Amino acid sequence: MKIILIILLILSTQAIFFDIKSSEEQCIIEQADSIILVSGTYKLKDPMQLNTDFIVYDPHQRIILRKQRIKEGTFAFTAELPGEYKMCFNTLTPQRYHSQSIVTDRVELNYKFGLAAVDYEEIAKREHLGPLEKELRKVEDSVEDMYQNMIYLRGREESMRDTNESTNARVMWFNILSMLILIGLGVAQVIYLKNYFEKKKMI
Questions:
Q1: 83 in the Ramachandran plot: left (φ > 0), alpha (ψ -120 to 50) or beta?
Q2: Contact, 93 vs 50, CB < 8 A?
Q3: Whole-angstrom Cα distance, residue 168 to residue 185?
Q4: How does DSSP assign the chain, residue by residue?
Q5: Which residues form the signal peptide (predicted)?
Q6: Considering 94, 99, 199, 200, which has the largest number of Cβ atoms within 10 A of its Cβ?
Q7: Is the pTM of this model over 0.90?
């Protein structure tokens, strides 16, 4: 059985709790519109209950991250393609349980995406940045993120405008074709009635 949870992301940080059963897959879908970093943590309430794998799929359904028999840990990946990324939990019942037994465990998933997933403390240590330089880097990244979002929104607006114009053109031609058909049917009906009455007079 496969269950997909579609999360509409408004904030850049998510905390999700859900129950997962044996021989089940549950997926969280994240929509990426540009290159973004995604990082987070996961934790099973009772990891001995189920053998659980954590798998991340890209928009082409290719596996870009897999962690087997998880208990508690961290993960990170870069969404390099636009589209839907699935973070899935796959479960199998341990052999000590009967194959028909339904075993349930609680999953806690916390993840961040975009700028919220960037560890600026680590960057500051690696690049030997001072406190002011670290804050400037945050501001620079924020401005770049806003700029990329504006470009994406402009592209979406242009695409929607093209779609509206194409739809309006098709509706206009459909209306013209409908009118021509109605006019043709009207003319044909007039000709038919005229011929019909002329034959009546001749009789």
A1: left
A2: yes
A3: 26
A4: -EEEEE----SSEEEEEEEEETT-EEEEEEEESS-EEEEEEEEES-TTT-EEEEEEE-TTS-EEEEE-S-SEEEEEEEE-SSEEEEEEEEEE--TTS-TT---EEEEEEEEEEGGGG--HHHHHHHHT--HHHHHHHHHHHHHHHHHHHHHHHHHHHHHHHHHHHHHHHHHHHHHHHHHHHHHHHHHHHHHHHHHHHHHHHH-
A5: 1-15
A6: 94
A7: no
Which among 16, 20, 27 is positioned nearest to 63, based on CA atoms?
A: 27
In DSSP terms, 86 is beta-bridged to 29, 57
> Would you list the domain boundaries of the chain?
2-118, 127-192
One-letter amino acid at 50 equals L
Q: How many CB atoms lie within 10 A of CB 133?
A: 13
Torsion sign (Cα): 179, 185, 188, 190: negative
Q: Is the dihedral of CA 62, 67, 68, 74 positive or negative?
A: negative
pLDDT(114) > 80: no
Q: What is the CATH number of domain 2-118?
A: 2.60.120.380
pLDDT band with cut points at 50, 70 and 90 for residue 6: very low
Mean pLDDT of 50-76: 91
